[in-house]
Each structure stands twice: as structure tokens, then as C-alpha cells.
Amino acid sequence: MKVENFVDEFNMWMRAVQCELQEKSMRSIIVVCAATLDTQLEKLIKNILLQEKSTDDDIFEGGNAALSTFSSKITLAYYLGLISEHERKTLDCIRKIRNKAAHEIDILSARVSDSINNMCLNLEIPRGMYIPIELFCGNLSEGDKTYNPNNEKNPQKRFVNAFYYMTQYLFLHNLEYIEFKVEKYQAPKPFEFIERFKNILVNDNERILLHLKKCKEKAQKDICELQTFVRDYVSGDVIAYRQENLDSKEKILEAIGIVADELKAFELEISLRESENVPNDSVSNYSQTCDAIQSLERLIEAMKEYQ
């Protein structure tokens, strides 16, 4: 996934998760949520494994595979520094709730036992880490900015809140691994995650600008050389240029036109990246990057309101 596209991917993921949980019994919600987190955790661990055809069979699948259980994935992810200590405890609590719900005798009932309800009410989200689902689904204005998820008395909603907290963070952890490698993971607040990705886009501008300037210099040099070839061309000469053989003055002039167009494109992109103002109707790569940065900034400001 490109970092520039992660806002849309994140929103799509959260909407899909929210739709999956609608109109389900609490027992079903518990099972679906745990399975989702199990899958996300497996994906996170795979980010650092040698990818071979036998990876899944050897490590994740089958009763004797080292990481065939949710518990083993949680433990390994923690000791690899992929999740924080609190995330480990939350995942482990959700795993235990899943196991208890799956093994209760009255499997035809939509209700769960009081012991499961009590376990759900023990789930907590660290201060400043709560991301309301209204940011992704429904109307943001409907969100209660004074809401404290740790004061929630409804066991089902308390469990779902903890699940949203974990599924959002595992999504971000998977994306984070593209650019960051950490030893012992300390989870930042949600908007701090996104500020990191925004800074990646901002800092990349200098690197890309330097590359564009080198391309511009190369194009200018090529045009000078080609113009010299045209001036000195003698019938029958064959000039090797960009893996092509230019065997006539017309072909050389055509090549000059192509390079001149490239030069104009480089100059336009450089001027845009060196300017603070990007035209709204611009279709350059940089204008798309600016749009992505602005989307991230809006999301950061919305998240900060909930901290």
C-alpha cells in the first residue's frame, strides 16, 4: 500500500469492520472481532518473516505450527516489539473472552454469561488512544467529545470499543512497518501515527526535488547533444540514443521534441514543488501529494478533538 493512499484504505477498513458487526448477537460479535484481530496480528508478524511458499504451512497452519494459535501470535508480536504491553494485555483479554464465549454450553442463546460481561467491563483503552468510530462511519458531529469509553457500562459496547481500538492500531502498525522499525514498541497516540506519515510525504519533497533537478540537467544536456548531431549530420550516419538508432535528421529532430517536452514537464514539477501555492486544477504528482497531506491534516485535527 502506498503511504499516500492510506487515508482512504483506513476509512474503507473501518467502514467494512463496522458493517460486519451490525445486527449480530454478542456471542457472534465476540467471535468475529477475535478472528479479525487474529488475522491482523498474523499479517503484522509476516511483515518481518522470510516469505517462502512454505511459510504459512510451517509456521501458521496446522495443529503443530508454532504460530497456529491466537495466544502464540500475541506473545511473539510483543517480544518482537510489534505491539505495546497494553495492546498485548488487551488482545489477551479479548482472546480469553472469545474462548469462554465459544465454549459456553448454551450455544443457541444470543446471551452470554455474567462472567463474560464482567470480563468485557474490565477492558480499558489508555487515555488519548480512543478513536471514535464516528470518524469513519456516519456523521462526525454525532460523536460525543466528552465520552469516556472506560466509563461505558454496557458490556457489549465496552467490548466493541476495545475491539475498535485494537483493530485500528493493528491496521496502523501494519502500515507503520513500511517506514519504521522499533525495538520495544511504545504506542503513540493515534494522531501521532498519522503525523508521522504526513511528515514522510513532506520530507520526501526534498528528495524528489533533487531527483527532478538531476533529470532536468540530463534533459538539457541531451538536447544540446542532439542539436549538435543535427547540425553536423551527414547522410548515412547512425546515432545511438536511448536504445534507439537515429538514422536520419528527421528522427533526431523528433527525439529533440520528445526531450523538450520532458524538460518542460520537469521544469513545471520543480516550480510547483518550490512554490508554496499549488493550483487547484493542477494534475501533477505533487498536487496529489498535497491533497494527501491536507487530508491527513484534517484527520489529525479531528482526532485531536477526542484526546
The best one-word shape is: elongated
Kindly state the mean pLDDT as a whole number?
A: 79
Q: Compute the separation of the termini in Å.
A: 28 Å
Order of helices and strands: HHHHHHHHEEHH
Please indicate the percent range of residues in DSSP E strands (runs of 2 or more): under 5%
The CATH topology of the largest domain comes to Four Helix Bundle (Hemerythrin (Met), subunit A)
Enumerate the spans where pLDDT stays under 50 for 5 or more consecutive residues: none
Largest sheet: 2 strands, antiparallel
Reading off the top of the CATH hierarchy, the class of the largest domain is best stated as Mainly Alpha
Give a verbal description of the structure:
The protein has 307 residues and is an all-alpha fold. It has two domains: 3-187, Four Helix Bundle (Hemerythrin (Met), subunit A), CATH 1.20.120; 198-303, no CATH class. It contains ten helices and two strands, in the order ααααααααββαα. Strands 1-2 form a two-stranded antiparallel ribbon. Helix 1 runs antiparallel to helix 7. The protein starts with 5 loop residues before the first helix and ends with a helix. 24% of the residues are buried.
